[in-house]
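Task: fold both queries, return tokens.
Query 1:
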Amino acid sequence: MKYTILLFTLILSAIACQKEIDQLEMEQENIEPEHHVLKDIIDHLPFDQFNDFTKAIFRNSAGVEISFLLSIDEEVVEKQSDEGIFTTNEITFKYENPVSFEIPNFSVVASFEYFEDLEFKEVIICNTIDFAFFVALPKLTIIPNQDYKNTILNEEFLWLGEEYMNVYSNILIQENDSDKTKIFYQSPVGIIGFVDNSNNSWVLDRFE
């Protein structure tokens, strides 16, 4: 009889503990993830160009022009850090070339990222778009006023006869000879030039 009572007591204790665990899990699930709002990099983004125009026209050294359609998307996304899930508004500026498959499409994505130094930082990531899988391939990561990995800041920049100030560009990775794409980004104009994978150079000529 004593063993039956003891067993019954242990069962009740286990049920009570499980209820506490379930309650704790429910409370954790109901906690809203921390939300990060873009602030510092807003002035580095090409809102005026994308709101006022629908096309960006680039030209090469021979005067050949190519047109990119401009559009903006904004959404709230979930991301993971060592501290758990967080959310941020993500703004994507799209440069879409519907004509030539030899010239890449581009996207400029502004968002918050969580870095190895355990800090949240606002970043601008310039991507090319892979036509086979329609995925973004990061080429240039910009943290304004900071150095970051393969990104350099050119204080004075001359490109196909055009002069620019404070232009960010990516350093090509020597081990990857198959990818020769370079992107040149100026705040807050956006992409002002690029080198395609065939080693052809292009510069922003105008917006329309």
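Query 1 returned. Query 2:
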Amino acid sequence: MAVKAGEIIEVDSDSDSDSDEEDLSVREVIQLCECLEKACIKHSRASSSLDLPQQLQEFHASLRHTDILTAKQSCIDAYFFNN
């Protein structure tokens, strides 16, 4: 009714609820992609499209690429001389 009358309605922002959500690491998202890929393939019908599993595989590949590029190699001294 208020919208029809031209009144302004304030809506709370969702930005406050975003801070409560837990941030997932890249490796956790990769694991979720693997689970979703398997579930899509297992529960999809033969006649249905496989677009979602293909999109998940592409997303999974891009995440792995990012993970490899941002990985840090540990120093060999840390392995042998760990005091």
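Both queries returned. Flag for query 2: Residues 34 and 54 are 12 Å apart (CA to CA).
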